[in-house]
What does this fold into?
Amino acid sequence: MAFDGLSMTFMETAGLFLLFLLSLLIVLWLLLPFSVFGIKGLIREAIEEQKRTNELLTKILDSLKSTDVHGDEK
It folds into this structure.
């Protein structure tokens, strides 16, 4: 009989733990769309900044290609 009491306590604990995990997953699932749409603008800004950086790097590369090793213009 002592084993049945221990088994029931374990089952109750496991059930509460699973209920907690399920509740946490539901809350995270409900908050997920807000976080995705919240960072959308930041991603857009990062892409624009990366495009500007690439343009500047292209200008620097073109400038370096137009000068030879001694610094003379071609």
